[in-house]
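Problem statement: downstream parser choked on a complex file, so we are re-checking the raw output for the NAP run. The parser issue turned out to be on our end (a line-ending mismatch), but while we're here, posting the original submission so the record is complete.
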Amino acid sequence: MDLEIKNKVAIVFAASKGLGKAAALALAKEGCRVAICSRDAKKIERVAGEIEAISGSAVLGRAVDVGKKEDIDRFIKNVVDRWGTIDILVNNAGGPLVATFEQSQDDEWLKWYNLTFMSVVRAVKAALPFLKQNNWGRIINITSSSVKAPIESLVYSNSIRLAVVGLAKTLSRELGQYGITVHNVAPGYHLTDGLERIIDNRVEQGQKREDVLNEWSQNIPVGRIGEPEDLAALITFLASGKAGYMSGTTISVDGGLYAGTL
Ligand SMILES: NC(=O)c1ccc[n+]([C@@H]2O[C@H](COP(=O)([O-])OP(=O)(O)OC[C@H]3O[C@@H](n4cnc5c(N)ncnc54)[C@H](OP(=O)(O)O)[C@@H]3O)[C@@H](O)[C@H]2O)c1
């Protein structure tokens, strides 16, 4: 199927590994020019080269802390200086700390609000003029299954990510007139370093790694933990020309884990 995104300019935030990297690679394989970032300059440049070599598409890698407005603004400018426009925005950031409500701290709430929510606000603000100019655009936020069903000991994620969902729905209603669609993708368990940190936390509490993975897998109807590519496939479709009549959704990629009907 031709996804109609060859040569589109896509930005994927927080993409030196895990879900962001898989999304960047999948978009590059569809022929998008892709800009990726993370905090480690050497690493992101290496990953940009890797994706470019695999896909044959142009890839730009820059050091950016998505918790900093000035970094986001500079990155968007770098992309526009290089390619003249922006078509697709995939918002992503490192996941909030593991904590129960009683463990949560005032300053940590603000830190994760800044990283998880304000990063999306700032990225959309900076990129929007270019999406509007094209009268075509895609905004896709990587959130979590926690937006549909809260996850134990992830109070920051369970709470703050819902602000991203509310923002995306609002944007979908405001920006549809410019040909811009907006979605959230809600990953369940996907094997990445980010997930490994949650597993390590359980191991510290006395569980065995394999028991944690088995416990999760048993509760997933398709019977396995996801790969980053499972999420990347949905992101690529939502970014495509074929998804032009969809907007404002929050879609799970969780092997059927979420038990609700809607
Ligand atoms: N994997 C899952 O099963 C799963 C499930 C639900 C939700 N999620 C959420 O999806 C997102 C991605 O998860 P993941 O598993 O792919 O994580 P990951 O494997 O830890 O990768 C995180 C990426 O984000 C970058 N990053 C972290 N903080 C950043 C910052 N302040 N500025 C710029 N880049 C930053 C990291 O690079 P540097 O450290 O070099 O900056 C890395 O490239 C997280 O929000 C996570 O909570 C993941």
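For whoever reads this later: Residues 80 and 86 are 7 Å apart (CA to CA).
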